[in-house]
Amino acid sequence: MTQQKLRKGDVAKRYGNVNVRTVDRWLADPALNFPRPIFVGRAPLWDLNELTQWEITRARPGRPQTESTELRP
Questions:
Q1: If you write DSSP's letter for every residue of 19-61 in order, what string do you get?
Q2: pTM surpassing 0.85?
Q3: For residue 73, is pLDDT > 60?
Q4: Which residues pair with 14 in a beta bridge?
Q5: How do strand 38-40 and strand 5-7 relate by DSSP bridges?
Q6: Which long-range contacts (CB under 8 A, 24 or more apart) does 65-71 make?
Q7: pLDDT digits 0-9 by tens, 13-72
C-alpha cells in the first residue's frame, strides 16, 4: 500500500485554506507537535496518515466529530 503525500499547498487547503506560511509557523511551534515533512529534493511532503493522526490527537474532548477532514489546530 502506498502512502499518500501532500505538498505544502495541499496541507494548507486541508486546514481551511490557511496561508502556506501558517504551515511553516505550525512547524516552528513545538507545542503543536505538527508532523514533520520529508523532503524530496527541496520539496517538503507530508504523509497523509501522519496528518490524520495529528488531527485525532488535536481533537477536543466533547467536540462532535464530523466527516470533514478540515480541522483547525
A1: -HHHHHHHHH-TTTTPPPPEEETTEEEEEHHHHHHHHHHHPPT
A2: no
A3: no
A4: none
A5: unpaired
A6: 69/14, 70/14, 70/15, 70/16, 71/15
A7: 999 999 999 999 999 999 999 999 999 999 999 999 999 999 998 886 655 555 444 555
